[in-house]
Amino acid sequence: MHVDGATPWIPQSERDREVVRQQMSRLLETSHFRNSRRYPALLRFIVEEALAGHGEFLKERLIGVQVFGRPADYDTAADPVVRVTIAEVRKRIAQYYHDDGHDHEMRIELMPGSYEPIFRPGRDGRLEHLADGAPPEADAHPRAELAPLPAPGLPPLEDTHTSAELIHTASRWRSSRKFWIAVAATALLLASAGSYIGWRETRPTPLEELWEPIVSQHKPVTFILPMAGGKFGDNATLERPVNDADPEPAASSPWVSFLQLETGGENVVFADVTAMTRISDLLTTLHAESHARLNNSTTLDDLRQGPAVLIGGMDNQWALRVFSRLRYGFAGSDADAYWIQDHKDPANRRWSLDLKMKLPSVTRDYALIARIHDDVTGQTEMIAAGIGMSGTAAAGELLVSPEGAAELRKLLGDKAFRDRDFEAVLSTDVVNGSEGSAKILTVVLQ
Question: Which domain of life is it from (predicted)?
Fold first, then answer.
């Protein structure tokens, strides 16, 4: 078989596909590939997919899942195994064909920017059918000599046709029609499957959609962490809502020693730092920069500079300012207990926690999460805030969890999940102060 060497060749028959597989085996048996496990696995996969007619659907995520065993929602930005491996495979293929001794062989090529291999004949335009380079045997039915298929209709009746010939012709027509119907149905099925795979490959994950309003601004994200030990209102009760007219908190004394500042002035709760670290790691994979500030040194002007993540509830006045406008917020006092208050049913205290309880006695904590487009700052804010420290840590974990994001999308609906403000109440089991996984109790659009 002779083919123009400059033109990509599309294998049509099983014999053609065997030619490609034999050439792939030649490559894999060389020193460029035989001492590796990853490179042969990737090359085999993409070649077989191309031979099966699926080459156009070869995407990074599909290869990562099928070849390297990554989960379906893995972060391709943080895990570049496919991009790194495909670049190395492309380089090794080029090294193989750089040797003049392989000029006569058919070529398997990987073009930059594509995961789909293309096939070309050797320099002399001949495709080898045998691994030892022997010339191909003549095809039993050369393509050029195949009789054309009957036209989609019965031929006109002529006197020269016998009854047997007419029956035979009609039978051929019916068989060919069934054949083309089957071909069309198969093509439609493959196209539908391909479209679905392509859609799955390009659709953002639930986590990406959850954080899109934050990261799409392409500005550094500011984490606002509360200083340990204080609650806003009057430091003992949350009966008075915090609003934009409230003065920003001042330091208890401008004349503290360095030791006093170090030991009591700028401490933060470990659970708050845990929540911030989890979210910060996720933002890094989404290519968003972030930095942290203490709530007492943050102003409204600071919050107007870009998106923010507010950590903690009762000890973070900026979170309380937002919750005062939403359906759910925090209420209570040290003397009694704290609870998540439904502003439509303010007497209901079903989500409450007495912070004076002994640590082993606390078995349940509650938290709020929210994504809000703040009219005052003009920025988008995400909030993770618990009644206790366990609630805040669990809220932070849910906001980076693929399963948690998927559940939120299911509860809110696809369109609302992408861009609407929402608020959710969470609960978490607690064992000796350590949080379990967060459960979504209710979620509302704002």
Answer: Bacteria
